[in-house]
Amino acid sequence: MAEHFFAIGFRGIAAAWVARRVALMEKGGVWAADRDIVTGMGLPSSRDLLYPDRPAAQGERSDAEILDDIRHLAPHLVRPVRLVTLGALRKKFFGLWLTRDVEKYGKTVNLTEHQAGRPLCEIARRAALRVQMERVHFVDAPRLTVALARDFTAREGTLAREGSISASYTLTDDQQDRGETFRPRVQTVLKRTYREDFAYSLPCPDNVSVLVLPLDQDTLLLEREVGDLSVEEAFGQLEHTFEMHFDLELKQEHVIWANVIDDPADFSCIQHLRQDDSVLARLGDIFAQHGVGDAHEKAGLADGRIEENYGVFANQIAANYSHIDAAYIRALVARHGPLTPDVLGPTHRESDLGEDFGGGLRAREAKWMLEQEFARTAEDIAWRRGRFALHGADVDRLQRWMDRGAPLG
């Protein structure tokens, strides 16, 4: 065990990222997580997006650099998508619809000719004739937090979740987010209404944008800032804007989840990784006192990493378990990457996966989370699946299974 300890307080991806870099300095460290290591309930958010084509803010790391780091560590936890940004629809004379200009990133496309226009209604396509389309990447931040936490403990770091900690430095939640970048948001998760793999930034009447983001083959995230509206009004404008652009009347059966994010702690938050170097700079004097050297930033995860193309890797794993539903195996790979064979263990038939708790969660994966991913409660397990948590799971049944000793048979 290392001689010197550095407590990385609180929870979430920023703490996990810094904790890992401390451990890479071969000083172990103590990560004092005063709640679960996965921030909030692990819901996806617009703040889990990286924009590699955009320049970095002054004093921050660029998203392109962060994306390279995450791809190096865990390519299965990054999902590329093309973001189409529409200007505000404004009705003009003679019934014409025009749009307001938007910031220009990526390339310009014609929605009446490009496949990105297919999901949109004809009015939106013609009004926003030429729009901006850029590459963005959605990071499954809860899963990345778990992967970094496992790496931290594998490098002799200590995850201390109860009791007092005596440490040289504590990264507290107020240092992670001083409220300067946080704005309350409303979210709705829908059953996916289109198959094309595009995300959209749509303008609301109050000039606040709605993000429409495909999370997977079955779910769609809608999100906007509350702004100057009430929460109810923000939800109303979010739904109205989506309906207007997609010519679809939202009904209760479309909605999977609705959520209000009004606590900075409930963001995962990729924004903190942009400030990673400044956090380490604040630790610099303390490190120097103890003779701690630089971190090996490019070191892979202790669990191993995917060396080949991710798609090829996922197909190989699915082929190796041809006796199991391929969609289930690919979902496991999207959560666990190179550890998928370890999660599956001696699985020779469908029944070896154990009890089915719904939403794609089986007992074998749940047991892995209890034994290897620091989960302690049924809700820990259910929400630790990141974006897949939105598929639902029977938490009460899961808890009863845990109370029986988490059997696989």
UniProtKB/TrEMBL annotation:
This is Uncharacterized protein. It comes from Minwuia thermotolerans. InterPro entries: DAO_C_sf (IPR038299).
